[in-house]
Amino acid sequence: MKFFIAIIGFILFSTVSHAQQLDWEAKEKRTIGGKWIMSNHFNEFVTDQHFTGKFRIIFFGYTFCPDVCPTSLSNISEAMDELEGMEEKFQPLFISVDPERDTTTVLREYVKNFHPSIIGLTGPAKLIKRTADLFKVKYSKVPGTNDKDEHYLIDHSAGVYFMSPTGQFIRKFAHGLSGKDMAKRIKEILDENR
């Protein structure tokens, strides 16, 4: 009898736990993204509204990043190449989490290394933090980094956000997903929602 009660308890706990997970995922989907304002790499103020009508492919990182950011931006570039013929429907955005070093000039030179449609965004630390919070992006200087050392590293979330033409969250692609696979998934999403 105790064994039977234990099994029933486990099933109930698992069901409640799963329901809570689904509820959390639903809330998460509703709460990623929002209204923001930043400077683009041409030193012009832009908001999320400037990209209304285009699907947004958004990545948070920084130009001094040794590996994660160049890999992710290369994958986004490859995805844009794979979406040939549909490029005008998409706007890739690279949002810096390093306002101390990533000036608009630095960003302008950096994004030239990737797909020509990628726009770099930066701004004051408070605006970057607010925007990162909207996307639930975490970032911080690597512990032990000397504040006077200009070669510091930043730990940061590494997913790629896919947002609708109205700025609604659609999906987050994991770091390391190839550009071909990213484009394939994007096409599948578009086909499912026709």
Automatic annotation (TrEMBL):
<keyword id="KW-1015">Disulfide bond</keyword>
<feature type="signal peptide">
    <location>
        <begin position="1"/>
        <end position="19"/>
    </location>
</feature>
<keyword id="KW-0186">Copper</keyword>
<feature type="binding site">
    <location>
        <position position="156"/>
    </location>
    <ligand>
        <name>Cu cation</name>
    </ligand>
</feature>
<keyword id="KW-0732">Signal</keyword>
<keyword id="KW-0479">Metal-binding</keyword>
<dbReference type="GO" id="GO:0046872">
    <property type="term" value="F:metal ion binding"/>
</dbReference>
<feature type="disulfide bond" description="Redox-active">
    <location>
        <begin position="65"/>
        <end position="69"/>
    </location>
</feature>
<dbReference type="Pfam" id="PF02630">
    <property type="entry name" value="SCO1-SenC"/>
</dbReference>
<feature type="binding site">
    <location>
        <position position="69"/>
    </location>
    <ligand>
        <name>Cu cation</name>
    </ligand>
</feature>
<comment type="similarity">
    <text>Belongs to the SCO1/2 family.</text>
</comment>
<protein>
    <recommendedName>
        <fullName>Electron transport protein SCO1/SenC</fullName>
    </recommendedName>
</protein>
<feature type="binding site">
    <location>
        <position position="65"/>
    </location>
    <ligand>
        <name>Cu cation</name>
    </ligand>
</feature>
<dbReference type="InterPro" id="IPR036249">
    <property type="entry name" value="Thioredoxin-like_sf"/>
</dbReference>
<dbReference type="InterPro" id="IPR003782">
    <property type="entry name" value="SCO1/SenC"/>
</dbReference>
